[in-house]
User: Fold these one by one.
Assistant:
Number 1:
Amino acid sequence: MQRLQGIAVSPGVAIGEALVMDSEGFRIPRRFVARDAVDDELERLSKAIDAAAAEIQNNREAVEKELGGQYAAIFDAHRQMLTDPKLRSELESLIRDRHYSPEYAVSRALRRYAKVFQELPGGTFAERASDIYDIEKRLLRNLLGRRREGLSRLTSPAVILAHDLTPSETANLDRNFVRGFVTEVGGPGSHTAIVAEGMEIPAVVGVGSFLTDVSGGDLIIIDGHQGVVILQPDEETVARYRHEADQQRTLAARLETLRDLPAQTADGVRVDLYGNIEFPYEVDHCVERGADGIGLYRTEFLYLSTDSEPTEETHFEAYSRVVRSMGDRPVVIRTLDLGADKLAQIPSPAEERNPVLGLRSIRMSLRNVPLFRTQLRAILRASALGNVRIMFPLITTLLELRQARMIVADVMEDLEEHKVALNRQLPVGMMVEVPAAVMMIDRFVEEVDFVSIGTNDLIQYSLAVDRGNKDVAGLYNSCDPAVLRLIELTIQATKRANVPTNLCGRMSSSTAYTQLLLGMGLRQFSVTPGAIPEVKRIIRAVSLPLCEAIASRVMGMENARDIKAFLREELKKVAPEMEQR
Ligand code: PEP
Ligand code: MG
């Protein structure tokens, strides 16, 4: 049994057989081979080495012809490493003596070498390490040959273990079979994490290197509350987690009774509790849980399901499905927030060194007006079907907001000229997720109908911490006093101007922050659908004076650790049965 600690990104317990993916996203088969298969496996290894060496030779010749001998030299180094007799005898002994499968032996041995180079001081040999990974991949490709399978065509339940999963790979996971997933990399605010939450499967990311310690078919437990992964658990541990999963089901069933009750504090203050969605089907999860509306529809995820640019009709179909399901409840459609880690399919103009500070989100929409107009036409058409609101992401300057609004007005005019039905009065709002927007909030509120605080990015940009990087995950803190001040400034300024404020970052889904945010004056929460019952349970259990006292205590504190500990205690007082999310 081995216990690993990672970052909890999607709650729940999953117990199941491991399906291990290599760094290129292909399944690595079981670790061990049968005793009587050893000779065949040695033969397979030998063939794979020969084939890989021949490939390298071919590449060498092609590059020499194109670019000359000096560029071809790198291939000589690769071939030398690959055919090194010491490496070969090590691999053979792993197969013969330990009965490792050739794939497992190759991964194990080469990654160990790569690690040695990686860890040498000064980083001088880091490139050597990537050469070794390259050889590993080449050998695996040859070993797995046509047996290479991706994540499609799963036929039985599995827990996915991978180095990384892109948001689109995550979005395409088969929910009928995937019980949960664990990745070596990834941070707390990554979009892969957001998709996992939306799909409601337990997930842990940023565990660090562990894939060589597991084999396909091993039993795995994922604890998506605590960020814990247990490899080859003993019986007692399995029993304990099965019991915990049962308890969670009981709690969820109990919370279902809140479905039709309003999100209202014990002393009668009504709060709007909305759902965040990425895919149209999630609207059903919101309806089932009695959401007051959709507070954030992340429309860029439309791009994850297709290889080509979505047409106006594709946009419209998705929006109308959501709007119709919500009846007269509000649906906030956020315009495309493409870029950074969501960009994958869209060709970027040039290699970006700093994608989160680059051409993403509203900046990309304003640079690519035809793309923006296509989406706006679809949103405006959908506005005739229900209570649609439009929201711009990553607004940093007033000029950006004005430009975006001008384009909306222009598209409206266009549609009206063609007698297309739409709601002329549709509210237009913006995300507040860049510190610059907070500093200028008193001006922004004069030009928008509502705002929504995006803490996922606000934390990243105010604390200078990459939301997708596990190595700085400990610095990515919702309850950092600087972040809390930015939120408070926003809530106060919008209140003065009578502009409704929502909070749609992941922070609002965590019951640890519900009392604090209420006390700070927040009256609209937009949360991942799975969190609606729990957040509602807290809202209904507390009274405003208590929340205000908590907020006032917290705003006087100096560091995130103390604030977190204090909030955990306060949560325990109102909901002892509820684990912090
Ligand atoms: C945010 O930044 O808090 C947010 C809600 O948007 P996203 O997570 O899609 O960047
Ligand atoms: Mg954001």
Number 2:
Amino acid sequence: MPPRTQRGSGAVRLDTPVKFLKGIGERRAELLDRLRIHTAQDLLWHLPHRYIDASAVTPLVKAEIGQEVACIGRVVAKGVVPTRRGLRIFHAVLRDDSGVLECVWPGQAFLDRSIVVGQTLLVSGPVRFYHGRQMAPREFVILADPDSEPEPLAGGKVLPVYPATEGLSHKIIRGLVDRHLDTLIGLSEDVLPEPVRRSLELPSLQDALRAVHRPASALEAELGRRRLAFDELLDLQLMLIRARAVAKRSRSGVAFTVRRDLTSKLRQALPWQLTDDQQRALREITADMTAPERMHRLLMGDVGTGKTVVALFAMLLAVENDFQAALMAPTELLAEQHAATLERLLAPLSLRPELLLGRQSTGEKQAVRARLAGGQARLAVGTHALMQESVSFQRLGLVVIDEQQRFGVEQRAALIGKGAAPDVLLLTATPIPRSLALTFYGDLDVSTLRHRPPGRGSVRTAVRTGGQRDRVLEFVRSEAASGRQAYVVLPVIEESERADVRAATTMAQSLAARWPELQVGLVHGRLRADERDEVMRRFRAGDLQVLVATTVIEVGIDVPNATIMVIEHPERFGLAQLHQLRGRIGRGEEESFCILMSEGPAGDRLRAFAATQDGFKIAELDLEERGMGDLIGARQSGGFDVRLARLPDDADLLGRARQLAMDLIAADPALQRSENQRLRERALARYPRAVELFRVG
Ligand code: ADP
Ligand code: MG
């Protein structure tokens, strides 16, 4: 949430519940709740997600074929029409003072539920010829409901469009914000010191808020956004830079020495050579571990680039120094998988990792804990159960955290902020562009694995359309019949979620009926974790040949025999997400196939995706396509509060925010001085769990 500031008295304060504001009341407050607007302050910070520049709106009759336009009109007719190819198209006819225009949304029959006759819509998109002029809107906004008058959009006005919800149109929300705007702005305090603000040429907080809610021009709105984006980036950088400073200061780290007893043995036992990338990463890690400071390093590498082996070398370096090492994974299944891998790789060294999982029996767990506490066990693998208080290590020297993005930024900060703690190596299979690495990993040193080891099976990616589904399925069947395994990925669990989208449950049923000779499994996010793990285990064991799934299979699962992945509705996934999914295949020696079942023509994005396997390149494409907010969506990022900043466009702001944060923290490490107090409070309001970092002492 945005910065809190608890000032103001009288009728309205920033923390006043919205239901007490004029024009709201209980019923609307319930609706606002859905938009996470609970207090007056939340209403003030409910920012427009786009603007309509009314000077750029085209009258319906003037929407010409071949142009890309924005129009406003009232819905006078609508309906769903099936095509011969089985695609369902939603139609709506709009009317304004100048005339009418037909709009079509192929494959979006579900819109029939939200668009009704009498509403006023803003639509924007290309106009083409199809029995007359027709627009296929890329976007639309419901400007007014049937029973309300749309506001006049005359005189080149710039209209903010707010995220809305059923029963609370954008227009109502706009009215509410507008009504309270001046009061709420008056209660807000700008914590950025005036001289700093001026030197950065940013507007004051008050001006910025006014500009985003009530812009006189698109440019003004953009300047306002940049000011608010700067604040976001500054808060994040303050936290990250402080975390780094705390980490560097606590020299409680171990200075390991390179002994080579175990690491050399492992090197000899491996059936292959480490890649250049792996060797470089290992040198960087070794340098950190032999230095007296604690290590806080992120090992970033696409799936299959061989992070696990690198981590294992680091663990052995700790072990040959008479310390223990622990590897933590986000799920039990992944922990088991790692334990199996380590067991295999360590067999020639007569070392065995201990596995600690929540689902083990109490007796088993006790035995493992005893061996860890007593020091008989040198290597441990587990879920975050490993970090619980009941677990103690005799002498823990290194913690490796796999898929670290599944743990939040503040969790990371908290871990780093802990007193006498071991070296930390984080692994992530979500590569991010350089411009972002600094934003999100500003508190860490980063090593990168860019290239995959040679000799791994490659993945061929193809785009196919609905008409070719039978052939694709026949390919899947014949591969499965000859001993391979396949994933079939869908965007939703149940058909009811989106009427026009294929769903996992239905697909699993239909494939099971179609292929009685094959075993078809189903996993999705609504299964309990243990049920999900069970299905995944059966797939890994080869009892299931086909696994129908939602994106829950994204992370970590390693089934080398799975060589086929069919992804339905690929246009509904971000490119980075598609790439994560695709990373589940191509893990064995065999060639693998990823088939994207596209509804329409493939489009540049899917073609670009099919053409490369470089995760960093895809991350750049994804960033361009969706902007940072989505790329590092809250789900993935675990708590970065960055919504207004847009990278790479705002790279200059990021650089300035980072510099300012460094200067502030260099001069006043815990931001205790009175002139920095407010800045600290605001950063902590955004990242409450970072509070430990800013304790004095
Ligand atoms: P990641 O965790 O980065 O996705 P893994 O560590 O699981 O990747 O490695 C992927 C596969 O490549 C594993 O089967 C591993 O044994 C193998 N591998 C790792 N390093 C090399 C290498 N240098 N040469 C050949 N194969 C390797
Ligand atoms: Mg891995």
